[in-house]
Design goal:
It is built from 11 helices and no strands. With 303 residues, it is mainly α.
Length: 303
């Protein structure tokens, strides 16, 4: 009697990469990773650590920062692989591989703004694959969007040079945020206890609030009703931010009650808070920061 394919060990790293890529390209259906077994997890773990380290080195500015980042990421990966959840492990590995492939592409540059990055992904979709279901790349897109919105606000406030076609750019960024928000809402429905997805929910709400702050600035002072409507929408998203932070803390508490180790930073991509222009990464401090924004937004409706 011939042996089943799943009993053939070992499979090579190239076989694993091929299986994970097919798994990703077919919307994460388990049958596409049938060759991968628990016996392959140590090799996948080492590979994930290698990829993560390479990515972290790109973002770090000095050796000490790299060492701290690597140590933090390694702790998160250790806990993650202890779950032995094949679907979660293979999903993360597949997404990390695609993320690494994107930022290693010859035409990629970290200097892309949100529009340029989106155009790059579309232009090279055939070789990079669709990124719509990649949570790591979704976070990267949100970072680009948020930082672009901040630059636009700085331009309007006279901190930076005027940016041409700000209204047009805002329209694009709002469209991107709407699409991403719908995707994240679906992810939360599918995995309500995934702390990284809960973090993304906070980030997209925070970015939406920033977009509405920009829109509010662009509306003429005399259009009081329109400004009030936008201010109300901004308050909604700031309240959504606070709820998102509560959800993250609830997931942390639930993990502790279940006896699961929760490594600090597990809610962030690769253990790092890469939303560079967010003041702090401490959840209590962020909650205080968002609460102050919500309070301030109530007094600027007509300005």
């Amino acid at each position: 009697m011939p042996k089943l394919y799943k009993e053939i060990l070992p499979i090579t790293r190239n076989d694993t990469i091929a299986a994970l890529t097919e798994f990703r390209d077919n919307n994460y259906q388990l049958r596409f990773i049938s060759p991968v077994t628990e016996a392959h997890f140590p090799e996948i773990k080492n590979w994930v650590l290698e990829l993560g380290t390479k990515i972290l080195r790109v973002n770090a500015t000095n050796l000490e920062e790299i060492n701290v980042a690597q140590s933090q990421f390694a702790k998160i990966v250790d806990v993650f692989f202890q779950t032995k959840n094949k679907f979660a492990i293979c999903s993360f590995a597949a997404q990390l591989l695609q993320y690494y492939t994107v930022i290693s592409h010859a035409r990629f540059t970290s200097e892309f703004n949100a529009i340029q990055f989106r155009e790059f992904l579309k232009e090279h979709e055939k070789e990079l694959g669709s990124v719509e279901n990649n949570s790591l790349i979704t976070e990267y897109r949100l970072i680009k969007i948020y930082n672009d919105l901040t630059d636009c606000l700085d331009s309007i406030n006279g901190v930076k040079r005027p940016i041409p076609d700000v209204n047009e750019k805002l329209g694009f960024l709002l469209g991107e945020l709407n699409t991403i928000q719908e995707k994240i809402n679906q992810w939360i429905y599918d995995a309500p206890d995934n702390v990284f997805i809960a973090y993304l929910k906070f980030v997209v709400s925070y970015a939406c609030a920033k977009a509405l702050e920009l829109q509010h600035k662009l509306i003429p002072t005399e259009e009081r009703e329109q400004k009030e409507m936008v201010a109300g929408s901004q308050r909604f998203f700031l309240q959504d931010c606070l709820q998102g932070l509560k959800n993250i803390q609830s997931i942390q508490t639930l993990s502790a009650e279940r006896g699961h180790t929760f490594v600090k930073g597990a809610e962030l991509s690769l253990g790092q808070n890469v939303l560079i222009k967010l003041p702090v990464s401490d959840l209590d401090a962020i909650t205080s920061h968002v609460s102050s924004l919500l309070e301030a937004s109530s007094s600027v409706s007509y300005r």
